[in-house]
Write a structure and sequence with these properties.
Blueprint (H helix, E strand, L loop, with lengths): L14 H15 L6 E2 L11 H14 L15 H13 L9 E4 L2 H7 L9 E6 L3 H9 L3 E6 L18 E5 L11 H14 L2 E5 L25 E6 L1 H4 L7 E4 L11 H12 L5 H9 L3 H28 L3 E3 L5 E5 L6 H12 L1 E2 L1 E2 L10 E5 L4 H15 L2
Parallel strand pairs: 1-11, 3-4, 3-5, 5-6, 6-7
Antiparallel strand pairs: 2-8, 7-8, 9-10, 10-13, 12-13
Helix pairs in contact: 2-9, 3-9, 10-12
The structure holds D-malate.
């Protein structure tokens, strides 16, 4: 056999696995210490009651011969695709049912979509960035070029028409910085991609945290986006599905390259390599869009956004510079006293038993920054903020 040597070019371990290992080692050496986790963006509130009862009903259906389901459509059941379609319609975006593909989450689809693109495409990613975009392309041996996301550009790089790229990753609201593009800013990106014949892989996993009307909840709110963008979204952060697993990807029919249609190719790819999301889970996901479900998930989102406020107030009182936390569940802060990201990670873990994510793990420009998530419980968030305040005001 001959193994894929591109794996020699990525870190041994995925960022969040490295952190989990470090924290586990610390906890083993200090079993009496209570570690507070604001690192990985994992939700802590249970699934909404509307989701639970829909899933219970689906389990019951599976118990009877007349209502039992075997293989479902690989690209998702119509009842869920229609619910997603209506959700887009409310935001002024008309989609066809066949343009929506239900999956087990945005992370898998963001990686799997690369099956559609040849290896000689040039990939443009912001730095810092969600590590999945970079790692999946390194695994495939693609050339990656970076655009700087810095405090100067509000962590929202804009297109440079003198740079040629084929595949562009945008995540808004951004993981890790919490910055979000306005519709006007996205218009520039759509113009760039259409001009270059490039594709934008748009990660909208955090769109439900947007409250500011000027910000885009979907790239398709921008005219011309259907000929240049694929959008990824997920129930993970929106409705607490990090462990339940469900998401959706929109591949517009209007997106074409020569004779090839990414929509048809994705259908072909999914029907070959994927057997769909469990019926029970899809029933739960559909319940997210009912009136009851929407009210319940809104409550959870508000709860997390209140945590973001608690973190923001704590940092403000310490005079620490930060961004995010307003239309996003992530707070991106400058490490105090010129510490590097990993120095601050160790300092917080050892002295306050608080876990965050080192900015350097998201790219070179993340060095000197640190990410905290608002997805903890309110109790843990308050306690973590108090511990950080006590430690840093010494
Ligand atoms: C994060 O913490 O960046 C996310 O939880 C990772 C993910 O969604 O895969």
């Amino acid at each position: 056999m001959k193994l894929n040597e591109n794996y020699l070019n990525i870190n041994d371990s995925y960022l969040f696995s490295t952190i989990a290992k470090k924290v586990a080692a610390y906890q083993k050496a200090n079993p009496d210490k209570k570690v507070l986790r604001l690192g990985i963006g994992d939700v802590t509130l249970p699934l909404a009651p509307a989701v639970i009862s829909a899933m219970h009903a689906a389990v019951e259906e599976m118990a009877h011969k007349q209502t039992f389901r075997g293989y479902g459509p690989e690209q998702g059941y119509a009842f869920l695709k229609d619910a997603v379609k209506d959700y887009y319609k409310e935001r002024g975006v008309e989609l066809e049912q066949d343009e929506i593909f239900i999956s087990d989450g945005a992370k898998s689809d963001l990686g799997n979509i690369l099956d559609l693109f040849s290896e000689d495409n040039i990939v443009l990613v912001p730095d810092p960035v969600y590590p999945v975009y970079v790692d999946t392309n390194v695994m495939a041996g693609r050339k990656i070029i970076y655009m700087n996301a810095t405090a100067e550009n509000g962590f929202l790089p804009m297109p440079d028409f003198s740079v040629d790229a084929d595949i562009i990753y945008l995540c808004s609201p951004n993981n890790p910085t919490g910055a979000a593009y306005t519709k006007a800013q996205l218009e520039k990106w759509v113009e760039y991609a259409n001009k270059k014949g490039a594709v934008i892989l748009y990660d909208a996993a955090y769109e439900c945290f947007i409250t500011d009307e000027k910000l885009a909840k979907s790239i398709y709110q921008v005219e011309g986006a259907k000929t240049c963008a694929i959008e990824f979204c997920s129930f993970s952060k929106m409705a607490g599905f990090t462990g339940t697993r469900c998401g959706y990807t929109v591949v517009p029919e209007a997106l074409k390259s020569g004779k090839l249609s990414p929509n048809k190719m994705w259908l072909r790819r999914q029907t070959t390599k994927f057997n769909g999301v469990p019926y029970i889970v899809q029933r739960g996901a559909a319940a997210v869009f009912t009136e009851e479900g929407r009210a319940q998930i809104r409550e959870s989102i508000n709860y997390y956004m209140n945590n973001a406020k608690i973190i923001a107030e704590g940092l403000r009182s310490l005079g620490i510079w930060f961004t995010g936390g307003e239309n996003s569940p992530y707070i991106w802060l400058k490490c105090p006293d010129g510490m590097t990201s990993w120095e601050f990670f160790d300092y917080l873990l050892e002295n306050a038993q608080v876990v965050g994510t080192p900015g350097a793990g998201f790219g070179v420009n993340g060095e000197g920054y640190f990410r905290l998530t608002a997805f903890g419980s309110e109790e843990v968030t308050r306690e973590a903020v108090e511990r950080i305040k006590t430690l840093l005001s010494k």
